[in-house]
Design brief:
mainly beta; 8-stranded antiparallel beta sheet; 3-stranded antiparallel beta sheet; 11 strands; disordered C terminus
């Protein structure tokens, strides 16, 4: 496993900052993902550390470090996260949701290495598998015929026609 994540669908170049905006139950939310130059030891190598911060009302409400590594075939694996949910004063309310590969039965999950697919109109423009990237950003990975690990949320997505 390498912390040098170069996958075309999920590249993690240190210094890259991705910003997403949306709503959560009608409240505006901003999610800022920062690819750090930091790495962390994981099974079989090192993982890139991505700092993910979720803002509501201009304040950080979730502060997470995500761990990603790429295998020799170019697939990106998610090795866990250290997450903190914060109150309005910036104090940690919970670390629930934190997990790491190998702890308490948790396993790394393949995140990328998938190729985008075009929906088949005969199937009502549905894509068979859509997985939440796990960043909380609402970003998705689309896969055809892929088995998703239990840590990854899967649902069917209806594409606009």
């Amino acid at each position: 496993m390498s912390s040098n994540v170069t996958n075309a669908w999920f590249p993690l170049r240190p210094g890259t900052v991705l910003r997403y905006e949306g709503t959560d139950e009608g409240v505006p939310v901003k999610d800022v993902l920062s690819v750090t130059s930091k790495t962390r030891a994981v099974a079989g190598g090192r993982a890139r550390v991505v700092h993910d911060r979720v803002f509501k009302h201009g304040r950080v409400v979730e502060d997470t470090l995500d761990y990603y590594a790429q295998d020799g075939a170019g697939n990106v694996w998610y090795f866990g996260e250290a997450t903190k949910e914060l109150n309005a004063r910036g104090r940690v309310m919970t670390r629930e949701g934190s997990w790491e590969d190998g702890e308490n039965g948790a396993l790394a999950a393949e995140e990328a290495g998938l190729v985008p697919v075009v929906a088949d109109p005969a199937r009502g423009a549905h894509v068979p598998v859509v997985a939440d990237v796990g960043t909380g950003s609402g970003a998705i990975i689309v896969a055809l015929g892929k088995q998703l690990p239990p840590q990854v949320t899967a649902e069917v997505l209806a594409l606009p026609q």
